[in-house]
Fold:
Amino acid sequence: MGNPNVGKSAIFSRLTGSHVVVSNYSGTTVEYTSGKLKLENVTAEIVDVPGTFALEPTNRAEAVASEMLESGDTIISVLNATQLERSLYLALQLLQTGKPVIMALNMWDEAQEKEITIDIGKLEQLTGVPVVPTCALSGEGILMLKNRIPEARNGEFKQEDSASLMQRSSAISSSVQKMHGNKTSVREKLDHATVHPVFGPLLALFVLFLSFAVVAFLGDFLHEILKGVFELVWMPVAVWVSGLMGGEGLLHKIFIGELIAGSINFEESFGLLTTGLYIPLAVVLPYIFCFYLTLSLLEDIGYLPRLGVVVDAFMQRLGIHGLSVVPMMLGIGCNVPGVMAGRMLETRKERFIVATLIAIVVPCMAQQAMVIGLLGQAGVAGLAIVYGTLFLLWILLGMLMNLFLKGESTEMLIDLPPYRFPYWESLIKKIYMRMNGFIRHALPYVLLGVFAVNLLYTLGFIGYISSVFAPVITGLFGLPGEAGGALIIGFLRKDVAVGMLAPLGLELNQLIVASVVLMVYFPCIATFVVLFKEIGLWDLFKLSVIMILVVISTGSGLHLILQSTGF
Amino acid sequence: MYKSLLELDLKEEAEIISFEGGTILNRRLEGMGIRQGKKILRISSQYIRGPVIVSVDGHQTAMGRGMASKLIVKPAEKNGI
Structure:
């Protein structure tokens, strides 16, 4: 346990070898993760808990931390060596629980760089528990920490009130540490510039634009390469299988799909072995990779909380404070972690607004990759309209919710972590974990989605549903009835749903409307489950009503505007 | 002479006197090291009612203006006054 952003997750992943996401800002961990650690003759279960500044929780992530404290036997108290005094304040509270404690004095390397020296022996003597200096990112001190865990013991502390604990933490820290240097580093100057009232917002715009450009262009570049690989390597295999199955029949339809003009088309055939593999691996994967590369870099450098500071004034108009950019940014990757990160917010109103905005107007990367692929062919204008619409909706919806929802919004209060050069090892591990998560969780669903499409078409179910919803789909949105199938499959996977539009031969204006409708309407089932867990049944119901209203008004409005302008 | 953090000038150093807000928030601030007797320096603020950034004990914290207006500080004595 420890304060936010002291490196608990980094120590955890070093100790257990398990993979958890580590970033340079408070509140990366909102749920507990457990892992196993082999000590000499026993295997211990180690739990990584969200950071907290005090034992009385002030938000849901901190509540998780206090709950886990109850159930633990031994506490590994993680301290930030560069912030000894306030780290000690929490550590002393942990000592008072009467449980055995061992302290890890993390970020030891950073303290040395700042010319802070800490007398470990004296600290052990004053607190009565073992203290081990560590640098979790590089791994130094971890072995020692592991070896000394059995030495964890109760400190001899009587119950004291917070005022005297504070005094004691300040007394202990001033007696064991010496600060030598007091220079303003280049890093700090850079730091000030990024939250400067004028340069800050300009930089934020630049960073966001650059991130988008990296994802769009690098993503497209990688996609073209993978597309080539698919055509070259996988096509012969698919053709062979197709021939084996005789080129038609139910099995052929499920595994290979329709032959387009007599041959297999990875984008349109829609079989498990063709489009089912092509969508996730050749279209979505490159964009996901570029997105997580960018996001992970921004996270590890420590820019996200500063971005929060810069956009705070604007976000307050939407009823949420600046830090809500973190769940939103995560939501761009995948809505599931985005909605979960909403726990860092304090009130129900804020959590509802963030969850609703993510679910309705923040499309996940998988879906965006497909839309970029589909619309990008016809130039930038279509994409600009899609994203412009989403952006306007985001603002409008946020402002309306802020106006009409009861409840309070809070102000932001967050530590700005020092900028850090990312440790390549942990950065690469994080990107790998996220990619791996995508392949493991999304690939089966994509395949299931493609399978369901073929099955439901064959059974005539999609045709039936399409005819039921035809008044809305055709009448209001101006789309062919077959597009209704995409809306159904969208529950399962949005990327597959967008893929279903490809064989329909839609006009550009229809593609724009269909993309926006698919992005806005119900999120995939995985997001739905998480939404239910995070905001509860009633709020989910409200969210769904808002969503339906938004889909219908935006879809038909956009259709009318595009039609009347002759786009 | 006491004033709120919001009224403190940029780059002006002061000592924290008290926090006139809720208990929970106060506890959180204390946990973050923003507590009575600490030296606080206002580093920057944003336009259009954005948060205030302060430095206490060598770490930086961004806080909303409402909070900043409730944090009562005593500016350091300037030479010659």
In short: The mean pLDDT of chain A is 88.
